[in-house]
Amino acid sequence: MSHQPLLGQKILVTAYDLEQSEHRGIAVYSKALIRCLHEAGAEVWLLTEFYDLLKERGLRGLPRATRSMIRSARILSDLAHGQRGRQPTLWERKLALARKAKRWKDRFGVADKLIRRPRRYRARHLHSFRLDELYDSPYPRAERLGYLRHVTGIVSAPELFSATQLASRLRRQKPVEIDFQGFDALLTTCPLNLKPKNLPVFVQSVHDLIPLEFVAHNEDPLMFSHRLQACLPARRLFVSHSTARKFQAHISRVSPGDRRTSLATRHPEERVIVQPPSLRFPAWLTADPEQVADLKPVCHLLRPSIGSDTKLLQPFRYFLFNSSVEERKNLLFLAKAYAESDLYREGIKLCVTGKLKGDDYSRSLEDIVSHEPGIMLTGYVDESAKLDLYLNAMGLVSPSLVEGFGIPVLDGACLGMPTLASDCESHREIEALHDFNEHVLSLDTLDSREWAAAMQAIAGRHQHTWQEAASERRRRIGRYVAWHQTFFAQLEEDLCSVLS
Description:
By secondary structure, this protein is α/β, with parallel strands linked by helices.
């Protein structure tokens, strides 16, 4: 969009998912919102709970400007590294009694936090600083904080997100009140148990209802229900029609007859949006749309010059699974399908990105991998490695049992790479967009042999792709950039509509 419809507006965007150690789907969504709001002319501020009290000896006695510089650096450092939970001690890992004692300690800790939790934040409880006041700060140059180039400043509300989670544990719905005087709008990137004051526009993003419909999910259903109920007084963004229908049926209690009418007709302040794809390309690569350059892999996982090393991936000789490792992602099913395909004998691997969590599901996966040499576990990968893995994959596989949307499938479709996806509603929505049905094949997850056959078919059709690697990468990049611009323009238009 050439004009800037949000020029002059001061908008807060929550950083809850940007604070996590891994930047997955919702963090990608957060970055897209920040960029779209910035390009629409808004002054974007990031709302975080990170804040340093500077309790170390002597720091409080420093000049105010010095304290401000140290505090700002520590907040940005926390955003750069993400939340890191305390690791269990050796005794806690080895002794059952110590583990039991820790559980009781945690329970008392939660009770204590519930008593002491902040119930409301006045304007004076908020701390802010502008990024342009930090001369030559190193943090905006960190890859993980690249989104800061679209952010004007940071607002800290100490322990805010923790307070909203604690409030969600209560039997009755009691959102945390917070005074946002001086801002024009607050946009959450996921449902939060908040009740803003002195704020003209409040918009909540709803991604899914998975904690309510999938028991193995790790979030308490009461807590998540209260987070969703806090969305009722707000304007809402849904990331898929599937999520919108579930919300209307189980949270907002829309009648079956109303569900058949369009969302925009029923609720002008609600929107079903399609978020942009998540890959980031260097600007020089796409400067000339008519002459897209090749981007050869530099990731340590892909070393074409050392093809004899069986521990490494070779371009266009592997399938990619790019998601977190948890039960609803159905990775054990995929491992079984890959084993049945017998593609390892042809030198075609299955690459799995995502950090193992140390739970029973991750241990089961590790056990399978120990007997299946064709499956490669990479752990969590940064954006540069992720880009290489997508550009050089033979195909993408996503057998999730349920999804709010499905960013990996959208990325695959925008690249025009063969993509096998489960037949959950959100994946089918992506398949129905534009020409994506030419690249996305949705399959049920009741028969692993069907997935094995589909992978064999893709391998058979694309067995010579590796010989034309450069040409195929350029084709994918050119196609992706075009769709990326289309989706960003549409998201910007939808955001302006719901915020106006």
